[in-house]
Design a protein that fits this description.
Layout lengths: L4 H16 L6 H8 L3 H13 L3 E4 L5 E4 L8 H9 L22 H18 L3 H4 L3 H8 L5
Antiparallel strand pairs: 1-2
Helix pairs in contact: 1-3, 1-4, 1-7, 2-3, 4-5
């Protein structure tokens, strides 16, 4: 299984914001630290704000910050939002499924259990957890721009 770049960008933004708390984070800083297009990051940041994970502060000295405590944001929750319905195989989508084995296939049942276990594991990881080594992350991410 592989997460989309959009999920990856969203998680990087949230981690960056947690590391820099209580300061605001500029997308230019996230883009520079990770070598990611600012445009792609802005799309992810706007999505995260709409879903209640980030707060956007406009104007001079603005940027983004976490909308709630990092310990209250699970990685599983973020992945569910950014990935939308996760369809590992065609038969996970009843509207587009053309597999004649639906309902009797043990592979699809095993894949559903595997996906549930994957998301359950991510539910136990918070943004605070992935930002807990704040000092080491700060060194790699570089200083905030002025």
């Amino acid at each position: 299984m592989r997460l989309t770049n959009f999920s990856n960008y969203a998680l990087r933004i949230l981690q960056f914001a947690a590391v820099r708390e209580p300061d605001h984070v500029r997308m230019e800083d996230v883009a520079a630290a990770h070598g990611i297009s600012r445009h792609h990051l802005l799309k992810a940041a706007n999505f995260l704000a709409k879903k209640g994970f980030l707060k956007i502060v406009r104007g001079r000295g603005g940027g983004v910050r976490l909308a709630r405590p990092a310990g209250d944001i699970s990685v599983g929750d973020v992945v569910r939002q950014t990935e939308g319905p996760i369809e590992l195989v065609e038969c996970f989508n009843a509207q587009t499924n053309s597999c004649p084995l639906i309902g009797i296939c043990r592979l699809s049942a095993a894949l559903k259990r595997a996906l549930a276990a994957f998301l359950d594991e991510l539910d136990h990881v918070t943004i605070a957890d992935i930002a807990a080594n704040r000092e080491a992350l700060s060194l790699r991410l570089g200083p905030p721009s002025e």
